[in-house]
Amino acid sequence: ITDALCGLRFRVSPSSFFQVNSGAAALLYRLALDWAGLEKKKEEGEEERKTEESGNGDGDGNDASSVFLDVCCGTGTIGICAAAAGARRVVGVDVVEAAVRDAEANARANGLSLSSSPSSSSTPSSSSSKAPSCRFVAAKAEDVMTSLMKEEEASGANSARFVAVVDPPRAGLHPKVRNALRGCAAVSRIVYVSCNPDTLASDCIHLCSRGGFGRGFRPVRAVAADLFPMTNHCEAVVLLER
Fold it and tell me: Which of the listed residues 144, 165, 167, 195 has the most CB atoms within 10 Å of its CB?
C-alpha cells in the first residue's frame, strides 16, 4: 500500500513497520524532528545556513549539518522526513530487508539521492552539495551500529557529528546499540520514540547513568502522544543530550 505522512508518500510492504495512525504520527514525527534540531534549522535565515556550511557554526552536532541516524528505520519515515526538513545525510538501519527496500524506494520517490557507502556522500560536487543523501542498511542494529558510525566518521561526512532518532520495537534497544550510541562521542543528542514505557525507562537509565560505557546523557524533555485512542497504550518521546 501507499500512505501519506508529513506531506510525503510512503510505500509499505506487508512485513514493514508503519504507524497505523498517520495523522497523529505526523505530529509525533514533527515533534521528534524539532527536538532533533531540524525544524528550527529549516526556518533559519540564509546567512546562518551559510555560516553552518562553512563550518563556523556552534559545533554541537544538533543541526541539519549532522549525520542523522535513523535506528530501527522501518520504511524510512523518520529519516526521509528528516531529509525533507533539512538533514543533509541520513543513515537508517532496520532488520527487515523488505522494509529497507521500501525505505530506498521511498527516498527515491520523494526526490532524495541514495548512497551505499559514506564515501559517495562525503565529497559531493558543488552542484549537488546541498542535496540530502540517504543510506539504508538491512541488518540488526546491534551488529552494525558501531561500524556504521565509524565509517561515517572516517569519511569525514558532515564533520562526523551525529544526531540519533531511535524508534525500537516494544523490547527496546539492544544493549550493543545503547553502548554504540553512548560510546560514540560524536553523538550529542538522542530522540527516543517509544511504544513501551517500561523498556523506555530501562534504556534511559542505561543511557544516562554515571559510569559505564562512555559519557552518559541526561533527559531534557519528555511528552506522550496518543496514537492509539481508547486503549491504554501511547507513544512517548524523550530527548536526551550531553
Answer: 165
In the chain, how many H helices and how many E strands? 9, 10
Q: Are 63 and 37 in contact (CB under 8 A)?
A: yes
**Planar angle of CA 206, 212, 218, nearest 5 degrees:** 50
pLDDT in tens, 8-21: 988 888 877 788 88
* Full DSSP string of 177-222: HHHHHHH-TTEEEEEEEES-HHHHHHHHHHHHSSSSSS---EEEEE
With cell 530506498, the residue in question is 104
Q: How far apart are the first and last CA of the chain?
A: 40
d(CA 221, CA 238): 6
Whole-angstrom Cα distance, residue 166 to residue 70?
6
| Residue tagged active-site, from 73, 134, 195, 208 | 195
Tell me the C-alpha distance between 74 and 96, whole Å: 7
Catalytic residue among 104, 152, 153, 235: 235
Per-residue pLDDT, averaged over 190-201, amounts to: 95
Give the 3-state secondary structure of residue 147: helix
Q: Quick check: is 72 catalytic?
A: no
* Separation of alpha carbons 15 and 17, rounded Å: 7
- State which amino acid sits at residue 39: E
| 92, amino acid identity | G
Catalytic site includes residue 104: no
